[in-house]
Amino acid sequence: MKFIHAADIHLDSPFAGLTDAAEAPIDRLKGCTRQALTNLVDYALENEIDFVVIAGDLYDGDWRDYATGLFFAKEMGRLARAQIPVYLLYGNHDAESRITKRLVLPENVFVFPAKAPHTHLIRDLKVALHGQSFATAAVTDNLARAYPPARPGHFNIGVLHTAATGRGGHAAYAPCQPAELVAKGYDYWALGHVHAREVLHEIPPVVFAGNLQGRNIRETGAKGFTVVTVAEHKVIGVEAVTADVVRWARLVVAADACSDLEALLAQARVDLAEAVHQADGRLAVVRLSLTGRTALHGWLKDHPDTLTAELRAAASSVSADLWIEQVVVETETRYDLAAAARRPDAVGALLQAADGLLAEPAATAALEAELAQVIDKLPDDVRHQAYPGGRLVTDDLAALIGEAKVVIASRLLDDFGEA
After folding, report:
1. Could you report the per-residue pLDDT of 299-312, keeping only the tens digit for each?
2. Claim: this prediction has a pTM higher than 0.70
3. What is the DSSP letter of 176?
């Protein structure tokens, strides 16, 4: 017997923040959660899968229209014609209270109710699936505690949408301890909610399948579902299978040895080619971070739009299946600022003056007042994002002075010399 454990499909999830450039592959991104689900169904049909378990967050929230539901019904219809049942549990994103539009699902789709734990039986396979959907978007009770005992003579599967003991970036919904789940005596736990694949316990397997398709830069690496193979009511195989069509990645390009923009672009092409290779034929969406001590630091900081355009142009020569989502400059000046401040010339004097600003209350107050006038002219959302509370504080001023010192070093030392 083989079954698929999937979770966190987030069908038709929107991709915010990627429309800043006309060249962005928006159409491919918009359709990727659908294609990932199609890939799952294709696998089930081609590999004699007996049934499919979806452990929550099939949807990303309420539908904008019926197209989302129609697509899911179409894919489930393909499984129905092959007599493959689907056992669906709703999580925080598709809880009963969040979804206002519904379609009658194909007869092969069985939904776990939200009022109490329920057991679905697959009689010919001697399988018992236990689960409870979310009634609301924020379930903070330990749902697993009320799950029924294992059914004798059956292969028992627990289906649960949970943060377990807590995971970074995920709300602490339906909390529980892995030991509690193991104590139920089930043969497999199909978990959802956490988007990174993780095995919490080996025997019996307690598994987060992870999400089917990464949707942003926080969801990097291969994504897909888990295939579980069972013989004589014992798990004999737990395999991760990829289903994603877009692969998100963080890429670090070391700029230490790059003396000019051409050298930087050449290094970026080499590193981007490796990201394309790792994506294995999928669209690679990359956040590119530039690091290291380099003479380019000042230029990189001063020309973010030009830099991004140059790197995206370089990426287009590497592969058509590649997009740079964002460029982050984390380089440092190659100059020793402490040594430069001791110079007996204008560069040293400027750096010493910058160092002394925070030590003089009157100078600090005057600078804060001038900067506040500039900050007050920013749009509200930009101001509050850059400065919590919408106002400059001493730590912000110290950071700005530090950046100014780097600009001084980067621009002036080339003119005055490093000696």
Report:
1. 898 899 999 999 99
2. yes
3. -
